[in-house]
Design a protein that fits this description.
D-Maltodextrin-Binding Protein, domain 2; 5-stranded antiparallel beta sheet; 18 helices; globular; Dipeptide-binding Protein, domain 3; 2 domains
Length: 599
């Protein structure tokens, strides 16, 4: 899996009628009460006695040219997430990853949420400070929010669009006022915002990418940087929040280093040569064939498969429906028959992958069967405006017999094209109204070539001319930002409780904004309305029903050709690394909960 559109969306959740209180509390949760009370000592998925020290060596593919992950320009370095607590920036609150509905105070000491959900107020810790020793104040919070909205990536305007104003009530008290209380997700997603130092940025241009190490407040600071090659994070020994229960047992390495590799095969060889310490393997063929080495046989490398409960979202070939060649949904439907997943899964993945069929795979949010109850009630008003199959069929991608001779599927694809009025041109390529069925598939990962080439071969049999092009990471990101592609491979990550981020994925208002995550170019008023209603869901049951409805409409418009997912991590680590006995189920927590075995 390669380009994830979630930042931390796959971890953070909607607080649909979150715990309502004007009394200051240490945590907020969607339903009931938080798992961890105000006097908790540490999260259960950490080792509170984990030793500090050592160096964690990790890898990344491609390159980087920026230490500012908050803007559209540049390719940020690894380790720089921009929602929730990161290595160098703290957020107002952070999530416990063993209960998907709760957020706990980090920069804030307490939080207040009124019954009408019209605002949220954070009371900041008086001992919170930047790495230069200056206190973190409400002015920093307001400056960060306003700067992200004015100069940050388009994502922020979609994510925080229902904030009416931000008010400083004291140097340690800041209030976010909302446009009404209908956006149930907003209180908790506001708590995820990374806070930046106003005084540091006052004489700098925020909108420009830079490799100058920024000032932060988190458990690490940026150390040595070699542009495009490596980046080092150094643990801050006097980090202000090191003794908080939320951080106990976390951030154990003195240094975290990322080395960059241009090629995943080279990166694997580097791992086996102990150039870095741990690998979350995402290629089934490599996992099956390339780890039968002396280092694993004698126990120097530990190889594990660990089940998780993380929603898988959707990975697939996605169409750019802005392109004339893909405006016809019949074309999009037909092309899916040319992707022979069953054969490819056996050939390239040893049958280890599960076929994805939903945009919310591996979760209760995936639609199934036919719509019933509340879900049917939601969809009924859109009859005649959505594909009729939404009401009559369960969506499933085409399935072959796995023999590699997919005649039945190709015959079905040809019939769909013929009925839609596409005719074979003199050059052997289908054409309709002057538009030829020819396009380019781009990606930045050459590993996908073995999956793409048989797909292209099947399309050629149908009179469809496609090509595959691998571009470098920076060029790929630029082209995606500008929607300069026909088709690509993409993973759209989802959380257990989707919300505001769905606007950026699917809404018409985002389709023409460079840098938005509506890569497909979807402009559908039905989808727009369902997304807005989903965001305003008043209960878990309503949220699930609206998500099922959204899923069905996306499925039957054929915006993607689904790939696959797995429900476990494939982790290989050098034995010097140790991890908690029980991982959280949503993330392996390598950088924040693992540690180096004392020598």
């Amino acid at each position: 899996m390669r380009l994830f559109l979630f930042v931390l969306a796959a971890l953070f959740t909607t607080p649909a009628l979150a715990q309502e209180t004007t009394t200051p509390v240490h945590a907020l949760t969607m339903h009931g009460t938080p798992k961890y009370g105000p006097d908790f000592k540490h999260f259960e998925y950490v080792n509170p006695d984990a030793p500090k020290g050592g160096t964690l060596k990790l890898h990344a593919l491609g390159t980087f040219d920026s230490l500012n992950p908050f803007i559209i320009k540049g390719t940020p370095a690894a380790g720089q997430l921009y929602l929730g607590q990161s290595l160098i920036y703290d957020s107002l609150m952070d999530q416990s990853t063993d209960e998907p509905f709760s957020m706990y105070c980090l920069l804030c000491e307490t939080v207040e949420l009124p019954k009408d959900n019209s605002s949220i107020t954070f009371n900041l810790r008086t001992n919170a400070k930047w790495h230069d020793g200056k206190p973190i104040t409400a002015d920093d919070v307001i400056w960060s929010f306003n700067t992200f909205m004015e100069k940050g990536a388009p994502f922020f305007k979609a994510y925080y669009g229902d904030v009416k104003e931000v008010i400083t009530e004291s140097p340690t008290r800041v209030k976010f006022v909302f446009n009404g209380g209908e956006n149930a997700e907003l209180p908790l997603i506001i708590s995820q915002i990374s806070i930046l130092p106003k005084h540091y940025w006052q004489d700098k241009e925020f909108g420009q990418s830079s490799l100058v190490p920024p000032l932060g407040s988190g458990p690490y600071k940026v150390g040595a940087v070699a542009a495009g090659r490596s980046i080092e994070y150094i643990r801050v020994p006097d980090y202000w929040g090191k003794d908080l229960p939320i951080n106990t047992g976390k951030f154990n390495f003195d240094r975290i280093n990322y080395d960059y590799y241009r090629d995943s095969d080279v990166a694997l060889e580097a791992f086996l040569a102990r150039e870095y310490d741990v690998r979350d393997e995402n290629t089934a063929k490599l996992w099956a064939e390339s780890y039968n080495t002396p280092q694993i046989q004698d126990g120097r490398i530990i190889k594990e498969e660990i089940n998780h409960q993380r929603p898988a979202g959707m990975q697939g070939f996605i169409y750019n429906v802005r392109r004339d060649v893909f405006k016809d949904p019949k074309v999009r439907e037909a092309l899916a028959y040319a992707f022979d997943f069953e054969w490819s899964n056996k050939q390239f993945a040893f049958g280890s992958y599960k076929r994805s069929r939903s945009y919310f795979s591996n979760s209760e949010l995936a639609s199934s069967g036919l719509p019933q109850g509340r879900e049917l009630e939601i969809l009924d008003k859109y009859r005649g405006k959505v594909p009729v199959q939404v009401f009559t069929e369960e969506y499933n991608p085409p399935k072959s017999d796995g023999s590699g001779n997919n005649r039945t599927g190709l015959a079905k694809a040809k019939k769909i094209l013929d009925e839609a009025g596409w005719v074979m041109g003199a050059d052997g390529v289908h054409v309709k109204d002057g538009v030829k069925l020819q396009f380019e598939i781009i990606d930045s990962n050459p590993q996908f070539e073995r999956w793409v080439l048989p797909f292209i071969g099947n399309m050629e049999k149908l009179g469809i001319k496609a090509s595959f092009r691998v571009v470098d990471t920076a060029q790929y990101q630029n082209r995606m930002n500008e929607f300069d592609f026909d088709m690509t491979v993409m993973s759209i990550g989802q959380s257990d409780s989707p919300g505001n981020e769905q606007r950026d994925f699917w809404s018409s208002s985002k389709a023409d904004i460079p840098g938005s995550r509506n890569y497909m170019g979807i402009k559908d008023p039905v989808i727009d309305e369902i997304v807005e209603d989903l965001i305003k869901a008043k209960s878990r049951e309503d949220l699930v029903a609206y998500t099922h409805a959204l899923d069905r409409v996306l499925q039957w418009n054929y915006y993607a050709i689904p790939h696959w997912h797995i429900d476990y991590w494939r982790l290989a680590r050098w034995a010097k690394l140790q991890r908690p006995e029980h991982l959280s189920g949503l993330t392996p927590g390598i950088t924040d909960t693992w540690w180096e075995k004392p020598k």
